[in-house]
Amino acid sequence: MAASPSELTSEVSADLAWMERALELARAAGERGEVPVGAVIVRAGEVLGEGHNLTVTEADPTTHAEVVAIRSAAAALGDWRLLDSTLYVTLEPCAMCAGAIVLARIPRVVYGARDPKAGMVHSLGDLLRDPRLNHCCEVVDGVLGEASGDLLRAFFRERR
Q1: CA distances from 122 to 29, 57, 127 (A)
Q2: Is the pTM of this model over 0.90?
Q3: Distance CA 68, CA 73 (A)
Q4: Is 66 one of the catalytic residues?
Q5: How many CB atoms are located within 10 Å of the residue 52 CB?
Q6: Which candidate, 13, 22, 10, places its Cα nearest to that of 47?
Q7: Which of 58, 66, 92, 158 is catalytic?
């Protein structure tokens, strides 16, 4: 059954609000010298986990925002399955993060800016919706994409 117009409006409003939180986390990452990417995992209007890039701080290439948020949510729930949740992230997930999203069984992903060099949702491939995998995600892209992209461009412009 299709969603009613009021349900769609509510979902869009929630997507914008949670993406704003992901942008706050991305800004915090940038202030620490990390690539400014933030992620939030939400279920039924409650934050399960959140994070931002920590690859420089932790000297760990696996500490992308999505993985940090997934680890946080799984620890909070005591379960690796993040069913009935939505992941909000400011940048299109890379192959590693898309794989983690699939493994965590996250059913819905909302992201901001596309990543033409590493994105594995639209740009270079589509791991999140590959029917050969054991789990597929609903994807919404471009939510606050301009703000997310502007933040990344400003960060890299300062470093060149």
Answers
A1: 24, 29, 9
A2: yes
A3: 9
A4: yes
A5: 29
A6: 22
A7: 66
CA torsion 8-10-14-16 (nearest 10°) is 70
Q: What is the pLDDT along the chain (160 residues), one digit of tens a residue?
A: 566 656 657 888 999 999 999 999 999 999 999 999 999 999 999 999 999 999 999 999 999 999 999 999 999 999 999 999 999 999 999 999 999 999 999 999 999 999 999 999 999 999 999 999 999 999 999 999 999 999 999 999 998 8
Q: What six digits make up the tokens of 72?
A: 């946080």
CA 151 to chain CA centroid, nearest Å: 15
CA angle 43, 34, 87 (to 5 degrees): 15
Query: How far apart are the C-alpha atoms of 31 and 17, rounded to whole Å?
Result: 22
- For residues 25 and 52, the answer to whether their CB atoms sit within 8 Å is yes
Q: Under 8 Å CB-to-CB from 125, ≥6 apart: which residues?
A: 95
